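Case study.
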Amino acid sequence: MNSYTLRTTLVVAALACGVTALPVAAQTIKIGLISSYSGPGAAQGDQIDKGVKLYMKLNADKLPPGVKIELVQRDDTGANPDVAKRIAQELIVRDKVQLITGIVWTPNLAAIAPLSTEAKVPVMSMNAAGAKILNAAPYMARTSFTLCQSAYPAGQWAAKKYKKAYTAVSDFAPGHEAEGCFTRGFKEGGGEILGAVRIPFANPDFVPFMQRIKDAKPDVIFAFNPAGKQAAAMMKAYTDLNMDKVNIKYLGTGDIVTDEELAGMGDAALGVTTVHHYSAAADRPANKAFVAAYKKEYGENLNPGFMVVGAWDAMEAIYAAIRAQKGTIDAQKTVDFWKTYKSTTSPRGAFSIDPDTRDIINPEYLREVRKVGGKLANVELETITAAIKDPLKEWDKTDKK
Amino acid sequence: MKHPVGYNADARLRWTEWLPWVLAIVVFFALPDYLSMGARVLTYILFALSLDLILGYAGIITLGHAAFFGLGAYVTGMLSVKLGVTDPFLQLLASAVAAGVLGLVTGAVIMRTHGLTQLMLTLAVAAVCLEIANKATHLTGGADGLAGVVVAPIFGMFKFDLYGKTAYWWCLVILFAGWWLVRRMIHSPFGASLTGIRENRLRMEAIGAPVYARLVLVYTISAVMAGVAGALLTQTNQVVGLNVLGFEPSGELMVMLILGGVGRLYGAFVGPRVFWVAQDYLAKQFPEYWFFGIGLLLVIVVLFARGGVLGICDGLLAKFRSMRGGGTA
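After joint prediction, the assembly is written out as follows.
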C-alpha cells in the first residue's frame, strides 16, 4: 500500500510539475518563409529576407520568455504557382510549420490559398497583393497593400491634371487590377484613356511597348510592373525614348520607382509621380528610425523598399499574435487576432487590418521623385488618405446591393 | 553489351526488375511525410521514361519534351477549371490524346530532320507552346497560372488528400502501366528497329525499314506518355503554372535522365529520384544557393560518370565479376 501511495504521489507531483512547467519551458514556434531566392525575382526575395531578418534581430525581446522562432526558408524560384504550392504542402505536412509567411508573388499566394484553408494554417502575405485571393481563404491576411489602393486614387488625382492617359501594366492579376482601378478613377474625373497595353510578365524589353505609347501622344502614362529589376528596365525604356522631353509624364504605383532601385535609375526619374503607401524618404519618426536601422545593418547606400516594410510589419503582426496567445499559435485565434490588428509604429504610418476582409487598410501618399541631399528620393508631397480599404472589394459590396 | 536492355536481351523479367516497385511500396509505409514528394518523383519517372524511349532507344535528341508535358498539364487543368470535368480518368485520357495529336503533327515535321536542326525544332515547338499559354490568358490564366483545379475522388472513393496518399498510389499505378508498355515495346521487333535507327539510320533505310514512319510513331507514343505525366502533375498539385512549358523542365528532365543513365530503361527510375532528393535536401539546407549544388552534381556526373548512376553500378559489377571469375572467364 505504501509503495502504491508513494507512486501515486510521485505521479501526481510529476504531473503538477509538468503542468506548471509547461508555460516557462522553451518553446519553438515553426514559421515557414516562402520567398524567391533564385531566378528573375531574386531581387524582390532579397527585400523580404532583409526585412524579416532585421526585425528578428532587433526584436528578440518582444517574444514571451522561453519562446523561440524557428524559420524554415524555402525558395519558390519566382512567380511559379506550382512550385509554391508544392513547397507550402511540404512545409505543412513535413516540417509541420504552424504559420506561413513571405510570398512575393500573387500567383503563388493564390496557389497556396486552398492549402491554407484545408490544413487550417494561418498565412500572412508580406507582399503578394492580388485583391480577391483573401475572399475565399479565411486563414489568410496581408500586411502589404492592394494595387487598387494606390491606382484608384492615382486615377482620381491624374484626372485633375491631365486629359489623356495611356496605361501600361504587366500582364498578370495585379497588373489587371491596377489598370482597371486607374481607368475607373481617371474616367470618373473626366479623363480619356487613349489605349491600354499589357506587357508580358517575364518581359525582357519594354522599348517596343513604350514606343507605341509615345506614338499615341498621351499626356501621361500610368504604369505598373512587378518592381525589382523590371522597374529599372521600364524606366530605362522611358528615358531611352526621351519621353520626358516630349512632355509625357510617367505616373504609377510605387512599384515603378522602388526605393531600392531608385539610385540606379538616373536623373530621368526626376519628376516621376507615384501614389503609394511607403517611401524610404518619409520623415515620420518611426520611418527615420527604421531606415537608420536598415542602413546600419545592410550599408549606408541601401534604402529599404516597400517590400522590406511589408515583411517588417508582417513579422510585427506575427510576434504580436504570439504574445497575445502567450507563446503559442492557434490558427483560429491567430486569424481572429489579426482581424482587429492595428499598428501605430509602422514605418509607413498607422495602418490596420479590415476585420471583414482580413485585408490591409493603408495610408496612401502622393510622391514625386526629387533630389534630397544629392540623391534621388520619393518625396511625399501630401497624404491622399490616412486609411483606404481595398476599393475593389468595397465596390463588390455596393454592386451587390 | 553497351545496352543491356533491348531486343536481343532476355525478355523475361529478372528479379531485380521488381526492386523499384517493392521499394516504392516500402516508401509508402516507411516515409508517410514524403508521399507528396514521392508522387512527384513517380510523375517525373514516367516523364523521364518517355524521354528515354526516344532519346535512349531511338536516338532522337530533344530539348522540347516539356511541350507535351505542359500540354498534358494544361489540358487536365483547363478541363477541370473551364469545363468542370473532374473525373481523373477522363482528364488523363484527354491529356493523352491532346499530347498525342501534338506529337503526331510536330513529329511529322521534326522527324524529317536530324542532328542540330532537329534539336532546334523541338526547342521551337516548346517555345511556341509556352507563348500560346502565356498569351491565351482567358484559357490558361497566363502568368497567374491556373489555380483551383478540382479532381474528383478516384472511383468516387479515394480523394486526393493533403498528405498525397491517393496521389502516390495513383501515380504508381499509372507509372507501372507506362513501364510495362515501354518494356514490351523495347523487347519487340519495333524496339529493335528503333535501336537500329539510332545506331545506323542509313543502313536501316537500305534494308527497307520504314525509318520515318517508325520515328514518327515512337515520337507520338513518347508524347502521349509525357502528356499523361503532365496530367498527373496537375492532378497531384492542383495548380498549373507557365513554367511546366518552359525550357527548365525539358533541361531538368535531360539532367535527370543523364544522371540515371540513358537508354537503360531503369536509368529513368534512378535519375529523378537522385535529382529530387538532392534538390529537396539542398533547398532545405541552403535556400539561397541550392542551384549551385545541382549544377555541381551534373558537372561531376558528366565528367566522371558518363553512363550515369547505373553506368557506375554496371562498371563496378563487371569489375567484381572479372575478379571473381579470374582466368576461367
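Observations recorded in class. The radius of gyration of chain B is 20 Å. Chain B touches chain A through 32 residues (CB under 8 Å). We will return to this complex in the next lecture.
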